[in-house]
Design a protein that fits this description.
Number of helices: 5
Largest sheet: 6 strands, antiparallel, barrel
CATH superfamily of one domain: Trypsin-like serine proteases
CATH architecture of one domain: Beta Barrel
CATH class of one domain: Mainly Beta
Number of strands: 15
Helix content: 10-25%
Strand order of the largest sheet: 4-5-6-9-8-7
Strand content: 25-35%
CATH topology of one domain: Thrombin, subunit H
Structural class: alpha+beta
């Protein structure tokens, strides 16, 4: 095998006492001097090195835990009018049945509330009443595209979400969306925070490249710790990876302003 000089990349010529570069004249007494990494390789064989390098891989691949710990807090929302079957997502925020979704999920196009929706959670079907709308124009007015609903019954096994302090959200961090994509049922997608503060139509939104479709609206977006950092609200048709969520701090302010005291919803980071 042709040996290469570490200094200039020239060819090495074997001599009685080692190797000499035919280009720059550098000398090496042995192959160990020429390739010190080979000694490290021998002392740390491939399987050991692989184990060491990836010993903490689980902490970077925790979508399974995020899903398992939160799927029983996510709602599949449906309701029908004389023309369409409407679908969306939501998430449970209090033990007494309050949940969050988007205004446009639970209203007619003219802004009227549908008043009651069907909810599937923990594989059970229950009814929920629309309590408060954050916008009176189907989510396209001057309000916030959020709605507070209340389940008439809490299925056994249901859990509530926990919110993250939005000040801790960083561009590039890994995130997960759980929701009723296209109305086909609950699933999880993953991506990153593309921009934690993107202005869209004079509204501050979180931008993500997570796969999001119609039916995900109103559903939660989680960080790797399994805490909610926002509520999915929209995406740009025809674009790849340009989807948006209402930030967690906006969601919490909406809850505070609409009949929910802090002790009614689950743990929130101390900044709130």
């Amino acid at each position: 095998m042709l040996e290469i000089c570490r200094q200039c990349g020239g060819d090495l010529k074997a001599e009685a006492t080692g190797y000499k570069c035919t280009c720059c004249g550098s000398r090496y007494e042995s192959l160990e001097e020429l390739y010190p990494e080979r000694r490290a390789y021998q002392n740390d064989p491939p399987q050991s090195a692989m184990k060491s390098k990836y010993a903490n891989l689980e902490q970077y691949d925790n979508g399974v835990d995020v899903f398992d710990n939160n799927v029983k807090a996510v709602l599949e929302i449906t309701w029908s009018d004389e023309r369409y079957l409407h679908s969306g997502s939501g998430f449970l925020v209090s033990c007494d049945g309050y949940a969050i979704t988007n205004t446009h999920v639970v209203t007619y196009e003219d802004g009227r509330s549908c008043e009651r929706v069907n909810v599937k959670i923990c594989d059970q079907n229950v009814k929920a009443d629309v309590i408060k709308l954050g916008d009176n124009l189907h989510g396209s007015g001057n309000g916030v595209d959020l709605a507070l609903i209340k389940l008439n019954q809490i299925p056994k096994g249901a859990v509530t979400v926990t919110f993250e302090d939005f000040n801790k959200v960083r561009n590039g961090e890994r995130v997960f969306v759980i929701g009723n994509s296209l109305g086909y049922g609950t699933c999880i997608t993953s991506g990153i925070v593309s921009d934690r503060s993107r202005m869209v139509d004079n509204e501050r939104l979180l931008m993500t490249d997570c796969a999001v479709n119609s039916g995900n609206s109103g559903g939660p977006i989680f960080n790797e710790s399994g805490r909610v950092i926002g509520a999915i609200v929209s995406g740009i048709s025809g674009a790849e990876g340009m989807n948006f969520a209402i930030p967690a701090d906006t969601v919490i302010n909406f809850m505070r302003e609409n009949y929910m005291s802090p002790n009614q919803y689950t743990a929130v980071a101390s900044a709130y």
